[in-house]
Fold each of these.
Amino acid sequence: MDLIGLTVDRLHEALRTGTTSVREVCVRTFERIEALNERLGVFLTLNEDEALRRAEALDRDLARGEWRPLLGVPIAIKDNICTRGLRTTCASKILRNFVPPYHATAVERLLEAGAIIIGKTNCDEFAMGSSNENSAFGVVRNPWDLERVPGGSSGGSGAAVAADLCVVALGSDTGGSVRLPAAFCGVVGLKPTYGRVSRYGLVAYGSSLDQIGPITKTVADAARVLQVIAGRDPRDSTSSNHPVPDYVAALNGEIRGLRLGVPREYFGPGLDEEVKTAVWQAIHRFADLGAEIVEIRLPHTEYAIACYYIIATAEASSNLARYDGVRYGYRAEGARTLREMYRRTRQEGFGAEVKRRIMLGTYVLSAGYYDAYYLKALKVRTLIERDFREAFTRCDLIVGPTSPTVAFRLGEKTEDPLAMYLSDIYTIMANLAAIPAISIPIGLSREGLPIGLQLHARHFGEATLLRAAHAYEQAFPFTHRPPL
Amino acid sequence: MPITKRDVEKIAELAHLELTEEEKERFTVQLAAIVAYVEKLNELDTTDVSPMAHAGREERADYAQRDDEVGEGLGQERALGNAPDPARGYFRVPRVIEEG
């Protein structure tokens, strides 16, 4: 069984016809990881023994004719999503030895659907970053060019899918952390509507923004994974009862009459010319497929990054207060008092970007600054959400670039946090407005690096989002593979 | 308002972070740049705008309600499973009350 470009569809066809077994695919997957992981830095923890045992059990199920939606699918899980009995570090020294006593709901549902967890993927520490350079356990390299970043924060998941070290992966997206690595690595990344997927077991960063999403090789696979993980969870009070439609059945190729909004603000200064050209070509292709193109405005776009970095860091400073060396995680040695232990544990346990965000969040929430920064940002969030509500009265989907540039070089932005934050310019709006968005690969730059296109939909509009992305992919398939 | 090293020390105190001198210097410069940037929001008049802690609430209006039923907890052993210094079924910590 060839792993290159392997999708759920092709795997299942091979299993149905008996040309491969779950075990064989699993063994091959670990062989490929063995050959490539050292170069790419994708996996922090492997689950080989358990995965092979499970593969054998699934082969027995298969022999009895027991079929499941993700049966035998090797899946990589971002290391900020809890897996029972399997180390979950958030790529942080402070959780270096943390072994969760429970599964995240999304993980539990994937396992019930027959998927096989092959390992935990590297990411920016606590999902804070746009390049995966903030991991305490080393950088992830972009499979398309080992001197470049894979995007962050789910860089390991993006690179794992692109390098065919798994069939699908889970990431998490607080400001673009699924979509940016998908764009930089030439794969598909979906951020669902806030509340579509349970956050139970996803280690909290910005709780009003965080959402788990799939990273896959095709739109159809993203639909299949979403189908399994979407839906109400009594353990997450922000998860929604909104009915889960049949996402796979929605992929009917029909986009005639769909109104695609093009926001003028997404094509301003800072957008790389090559990316701009590729995105416009894709928009014209959508028109050729029968979509109607309308110009729209998202007037508060230029305020989104400022708004996001206040809200996200405020939530982070509160969420990360729990890492105090008492109940789990790293504890500094030799402290004589409790306060000293807190301070030294956090000093030694957190990396620079995490500290920077805790500091910023603490500042914007502190007495005397709360109204000027935090409250102000919450008001601007209202304006940003309103922009989308108004735009969606004129169109069904919003289209634009996922990122202003292709993957940048390792080290290029590490000394300038603000420049790094600006990579998220097109992705953070969806988190602030709680709407779903997808990134799909549409071509390569002259240097051979993937370019991503982003689509946004209304709240709970994943079926329309996936339908349009799938129709595009069918008409203009992205068939390039990284030169590994 | 520009951020000073004194501010950074105060914030670190609030956040229970013990920073090195080098970190203090670096964060002072970096946080000042970030705060100057986010002050961009002051260009917007938000007098009659209400704050939004969670977006998309209308669409999610059916959220959150369930019966409060007693379920199974982790249990003491598993809850202590990741503790850095468990002792006799508790989380042991250094002295809480500091000597004057």
Amino acid sequence: MKKLIIALLYLLLLPNTTFSQGISIVKISTIDQLISAKSEQTQIINFWATWCAPCVKEMPLFEKITLNDKTAKVTLVSLDLQTDNSTDKVFKFVERKKITSTVLILDESDANTWIDKVDSHWSGALPATLVINTMTGKRKFIERELKEGELEELIKQVK
Amino acid sequence: MKIIIIVFAFFFNLVAPIAPKKGYDVGDMVADFSLKNVDGKYISLSTYESAKGIILIFDCNTCPVSKIYNSRIIDLHKKYSKLNFPVVTINSNDETKSPEDSFNEMVNEANTKKYDFAYLWDNTQTVAQTFGATNTPHVFVLVKQNEEFKVAYIGAIDDNARDASKAKKKYVENAVDALLEGSIVPITKTKAIGCGIKWRDA
């Protein structure tokens, strides 16, 4: 019993290595920059929220890219602040799911002023994903839950 | 052989679908529909004979954005039904994808929240498709013109989902006020973050 307590304490005190990166709270200008700044890496920008079930379901597909494809850069943009006063849920979610992709929390209220800046075809429904190759200038915008293998296909299409 | 090709081309011309319509735009006249209300009765736009217009909202039980706007939707009806501009809500979510949006759950929701406006069940999703509704809550303000309804506004309820008291632009109220005064709707189209309508798998 004593050993178990010591082991548990040890676990609690261990620095959480999987959750080492910070989550930034950003304005739309940061997203604009991600979309337009020239980058060797294909930019994959996913708009999600902790309350959006299909978003949560497709998240492993983005994690797979982050872990396996160094030519692509995934940014998961949380829109939780649209409905929630606090960012707690996002932090807890990222920690619990051990998300390794970059997570940003967008802090902008009037969505009507910035949805078109992301993509004019976006209705505002979640999830939504933007795949951009800033070198070729090609981009793909998908407003629905992605299927297994679809992200890899989209990355090829913008090459 | 030539004939076959010609016949083929002719056939395809006839059956090839024209690019699927993406729903109504502002200014379009709306085709009437008939959907089951939570009280079991079927309701059409023509049911609202004396209405000057309708605040039609694609909504549901489950979406957090819908939940946060729920009291604002109830208030819209309170304010505008007296002025013959009632709220009508429609749930188009596929119940196999979102079981808590089933008809029975809609009835429960309407009873719990004491809805005094229609909450219609679009179980075939055709009304949502015809309108081009994409997310919840998604508002279409309709104004009556020569016994028909015309789309006057499409989009969000206001510019602040999180906090009603901080909303600066009340898009729907401004649109309905303008229509009631007979003036021009100031902003006719807006966008907001919402839950995608849970479409049935094709």
